[in-house]
Design goal:
With 134 residues, this protein is of the alpha+beta class. Helix content is 33%, strand content 28%.
Length: 134
Amino acid sequence: MKKYLYTVLLFIIVIGLCSCGGTVKNVNTHEVNSAVYTQEDILSAIDEIKSEFKRNWSGCKLTEIYYAGDDIIKDFEDWADRNDADEVIVLLSSFDVDSSGGDGSLNPNSTYDNWNWILVRNTGDKWRHVDHGY
C-alpha cells in the first residue's frame, strides 16, 4: 500500500512540475508614473505578457515585469508603424529558466534580466505582443 501511495504522490508532483506554460505567480511589478500611459494602460500590457508567458514559455518562471519608462518609447515608435498601430509600450522583465532551456533556445538553469517585451495597440484597443528579446 505504501508503495502505491508513493507512486501516486510522485505522479502528482511530476504532473505539477510539467504543466504547460511558464510560471507567473508572485511576480514583482513596479508602480511607475508616466506622462504617456495611465497605470491601467501599463497593467493591461503587463497582464498581456503574463498571459503570453503562461501560454508559451514552458520551463520558465517570470520573476519581475515592469514598464520601461516614457523615455524609451521614442526608440520603439517604428514598431507601432510596422504593425499598423497607434501606440507602442515597452516592458522589461526578469525570468528564470529551468534545466530544459525553455523551448530549447534559452540557456538552461539561467536568469534573463532586462528582457524587452514590445506591445502595440490602436487607441482604445487591447495591447498586442509583437516582439521580445534584448
